[in-house]
From TrEMBL:
One Pfam family of this chain: CBS
Annotated InterPro entries: CBS_dom, CBS_dom_sf, Diverse_CBS-Domain
Annotated keywords: CBS domain
Source domain of life: Bacteria
The name this protein goes by in its record: CBS,Cystathionine beta-synthase
Organism this protein belongs to: Nitrospira lenta
Domain CBS: 8-70
Amino acid sequence: MSCCSEVMTPIEASSCCTPHDTVAHAAQAMRDSGCGCAPVVEDTEHLKLVGVVTERDVCCGGAADDRRASEVRVEKIMRPVSACCGASEPVEEARRKLHEQRATCLPVADKAGGCCGTVSVHGLEKW
């Protein structure tokens, strides 16, 4: 059985955001990385994962309420770290979480809680 670490895409610090960043920053990180989520980390040096912001969160948590992305903090719309995947979790668990969260992509955390990558619906198609 495959685990998330085998199917994930490695992450770069520029693809992450902090709870204090704006939703606009998170959306830019998603656009620049081509990923449907932005891992939310305590700081971009250590990448300790604290949650996730998805494309859906940006739309439903900001735009749908006619809130300016540059004025809303990520902490107001982010999902908790429990929505993320563990590196050693089975691929089927990642599929379940993606479906449950209605997301196309979720961050992957290593044993120390650091963000090490992302898994996506598209990346799991071959598994």
